[in-house]
Design a protein that fits this description.
It is a single chain. The chain starts with a strand and ends with a helix. It folds into two domains: 2-77, OB fold (Dihydrolipoamide Acetyltransferase, E2P) (Beta Barrel); 86-242, Recombination protein O, C-terminal domain (de novo design (two linked rop proteins)). The protein contains six helices and eight strands, in the order βββββαααβββααα. The mean pLDDT is 95. The protein is elongated and about 65 Å long. The strands form two sheets. It has a five-stranded mixed beta barrel with strand order 1-2-3-5-4. It is α+β, with helices and mostly antiparallel strands. The structure holds zinc ion (ZN). Zinc ion (ZN) is lined by residues 154, 156-157, 159, 176, 178-179. Zinc ion binds next to loops.
Length: 246
C-alpha cells in the first residue's frame, strides 16, 4: 500500500454501498482519478465536507491494487455557494462535466486544473459576465487539450490582416478572402473575430475589460461548440441546461 497526497477538485460523486461513495477528482499529480471514500455518507463523517461536487482541497490517499482510498484531507474552498444560484450551479456543473468527459483517467494536466480553479473562483465571485466566462473557458480548454484554433492568421497563406474572414472547422482556423474556395467555410465578421482574438490571449481575470455585443458572442459560442464537437465529440448533459441561462 502506498500513500499519496494530491490537490484537486471533485468533478462528480457516486453513491457506493450503504454509506460509502466514490468521488472523481481532477488532481494536480495524477489528473483525473476515482477515490473510494469509506463512510463518507454518514452524517457525522469527517469526510462529508471534503467529498461534495466542486470541493477543492488536499486529499491524502492510500492506494492498494488499483484503487485509491481517501484517508484524510483538508478543504481549500468548497464552492458550495454556487448551489444557491441556479445559473451559477448549471454553469459550474458544465465546466466540471466538460473536463470529466474530455480527459481520460490519470492523464495529468496542471494547466487544465489551473483553468478550472480560476474559472470556478471567478464564477463564485460573480464579477465577470457568465456568458463571456463560459465562451472563454471553452476556447482555453479546447486549446489546452491540443486543438487550439488558429485565429490570428489565415491557415492557408498566413496573411494576418483579414478584411473579410472565414472560419474552417475541419482545417482548424481562419481563412482569408483570397483562400476562400470552399462553401463550407463560415463567414465571420470583424466584431466576432475581435472576440475570438481577445479571448485567445486574455487572462480570465481581465475578462471584465472586454465589451461585446451578445449576438456576436452567441455566434462565437456556437462556432466553438461546432469546433469542439468536431474534435472531441462529447455528449454533455449540462449543455441543454445552460442553453437558456444567458
Ligand atoms: Zn489566405
Amino acid at each position: 500500500m502506498s500513500i499519496h497526497k494530491v490537490q484537486g477538485v471533485v468533478l462528480k460523486t457516486c453513491n457506493y454501498s450503504e454509506y460509502d461513495k466514490i468521488i472523481t477528482i481532477f488532481s494536480d499529480k495524477y489528473g483525473k482519478i476515482d477515490i473510494l471514500c469509506n463512510g463518507a455518507r454518514r452524517t457525522k463523517s469527517k469526510q462529508l465536507h471534503l467529498t461534495q461536487q466542486f470541493c477543492f482541497g488536499e486529499y491524502v490517499l492510500s492506494k492498494s491494487k488499483d484503487m485509491y482510498v481517501l484517508n484524510s484531507g483538508s478543504l481549500n474552498n468548497s464552492f458550495q455557494s454556487l448551489l444557491n444560484d441556479y445559473k451559477k450551479l448549471m454553469l459550474g456543473s458544465y465546466f466540471l462535466e466538460f473536463i470529466d468527459k474530455s480527459i481520460e483517467n490519470e492523464n495529468k494536466n496542471v494547466y487544465v486544473l489551473a483553468l478550472l480553479l480560476k474559472t470556478l473562483y471567478l464564477l463564485e465571485d460573480g464579477t465577470i459576465d457568465n456568458y463571456l466566462l463560459k465562451v472563454t473557458f471553452d476556447f482555453k480548454l479546447v486549446s489546452l487539450l491540443g486543438y487550439t484554433p488558429q485565429v490570428l492568421k489565415c491557415i492557408k497563406c498566413g496573411k494576418k490582416t483579414l478584411d473579410e474572414a472565414f472560419f474552417s472547422i475541419i482545417e482548424g482556423g481562419l481563412i482569408c478572402k483570397s483562400c476562400n474556395n470552399n462553401v463550407s467555410y463560415i463567414r465571420i465578421n470583424n466584431k466576432e473575430l475581435e472576440i475570438l482574438t481577445k479571448i485567445r490571449n486574455i487572462k480570465l481575470e481581465d475578462l471584465g475589460k472586454i465589451y461585446y455585443d451578445k449576438t456576436n458572442l452567441k455566434f462565437i459560442d456556437e462556432l466553438l461548440q461546432q469546433y469542439t464537437n468536431y474534435y472531441l465529440s462529447l455528449k454533455l448533459n449540462t449543455i441543454d441546461f445552460i442553453k437558456n441561462i444567458f
